[in-house]
């Protein structure tokens, strides 16, 4: 996931993406605990994607607050 792609999305789309990523992170943690995880690097990718989405949401919120 690229940050430039995320910046083109609306805050609602970003929140939906965040929910999806958090569900995936939960499922990956569950798979890791049961030993069924095929790609352990995916956990790290998802965590970083969650951080990217949160950062861009905060940037958009700060920009909206600055305009008012």
TrEMBL record:
- What is any one of the record's Gene Ontology cellular component terms? cytosolic large ribosomal subunit
Sorted alphabetically, which PROSITE patterns does this protein's record hold?
A: RIBOSOMAL_L29 (PS00579)
SUPFAM superfamilies listed in its UniProt record: Ribosomal protein L29 (L29p)
Q: Which residues cross the membrane?
A: none
Q: Which GO terms describe its biological process?
A: translation
Keywords in alphabetical order = Ribonucleoprotein, Ribosomal protein
Write out the similarity annotation: Belongs to the universal ribosomal protein uL29 family.
Q: In its UniProt entry, what is this protein called?
A: Large ribosomal subunit protein uL29
């Amino acid at each position: 996931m690229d940050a430039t792609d995320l910046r083109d999305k609306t805050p609602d789309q970003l929140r939906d993406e965040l929910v999806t990523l958090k569900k995936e992170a939960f499922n990956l943690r569950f798979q890791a605990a049961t030993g069924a995880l095929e790609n352990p690097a995916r956990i790290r990718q998802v965590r970083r994607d969650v951080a990217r989405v949160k950062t861009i949401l905060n940037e958009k919120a700060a920009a909206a607050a600055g305009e008012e």
